[in-house]
Amino acid sequence: MKELMIGNIVKVIVDRPLGSHHPKHKDIIYPVNYGYIPGIIAADGEEQDAYILGINYPIKEFIGKVIAIIHRIDDIEDKWVVAPEELSFTKHEILYKVDFQEQFFKTEIIM
Predict the structure, then answer these.
(1) Mean pLDDT throughout 45-61?
(2) How is 80-105 classified by DSSP, letter by letter?
(3) Pairwise CA distance, residues 11 & 71, whole Å
């Protein structure tokens, strides 16, 4: 089911802009914009989280294309990867950009 979202255009509200600190782990600084997709509820009961790639400055919201799903094998929630429609990233590039947070989980990238 989650794979069906790949290619869809979504709006992301950024609550952790590029350069900000993680709210609980102050040693983690976000190298990408990170937020949630309003109205879509994830497995954890919260709105769906999303990484935004391809925008290299802090933003408050973004409309872009879902290019991948990061499936956390050892956690209940998945993360979506959203980018400008004209950009694409390889699995390796995605893993590199989100490793600051995903290094703590066993993941697979669905594209």
Answers:
(1) 95
(2) EEEE-TT----HHHHHHHHHHHHTTS
(3) 20
